[in-house]
């Protein structure tokens, strides 16, 4: 089961999932409304390539500094927070695991997708879903970043527009897809929603907001007979 939040929950506008800012009554509404197995626990995301495996629900919010989490256990939510970065949800066609990955450019540059899949080491076909993120023509980056990224990922030229006056536009979808394709992942679905342009999402680049949305998934337990 997978859920993507926006900035609105029921009739409550500006719903913020971040544990340091969220209202308990709205989190409870989220849990009850979507029948979540527990209150989502979030990582302290640091734009790196650290991965946490959950064997059970985390005991507290922001317990781990990491940008990806996965589990092989039933009814344990894996979740990441975003407000322009790309959330990537992963599983396989055997349903043996689920993973949530926070993919900003730093994490992608640090090979977080490769590190995550290597740690999971699934023998089955991997399936990926891309959540809403900032889209290419809104994501301007410096020439120095493009050159440094391409040194580490030389097959990623299609993810960038031609450099013009020291700037380029970057495509997070393409950056992640190229890396996943190189790892043998071919089945990728994408929301194709722009956090910068669409008002129902939070965008750090739009207004420097500290509010966040969540992308989460879990393996459902067996239903009682």
Number of E-type strands: 13
Strand share of the residues?
15-25%
**Helix proportion range:** 10-25%
Instruction: Give me the CATH fold name of the domain at 2-133 and 194-217.
Output: CNF1/YfiH-like putative cysteine hydrolases
Question: Which stretches are poorly predicted, pLDDT < 50 over at least 5 residues?
Answer: none
Assign the structural class, choosing from mainly alpha, mainly beta, alpha/beta, alpha+beta, or little secondary structure. alpha+beta
Structural key phrases:
about 25% strand, CNF1/YfiH-like putative cysteine hydrolases, about 220 residues, 6-stranded mixed β-sheet, alpha+beta, 13 strands, 3-stranded antiparallel β-sheet
Description:
- The chain is α+β, with helices and mostly antiparallel strands and 225 residues long.
- The protein has a domain at 2-133 and 194-217: CNF1/YfiH-like putative cysteine hydrolases (4-Layer Sandwich), CATH 3.60.140.
- The protein has six helices and 13 strands.
- The strands form four sheets. It has a six-stranded mixed β-sheet with strand order 4-5-8-7-9-12. A three-stranded antiparallel β-sheet has the order 1-13-6, with no helix packed on it.
- Strand 7 (86-92) and strand 8 (98-103) form a beta hairpin.
- It is globular and about 50 Å long.
- The two termini are 20 Å apart.
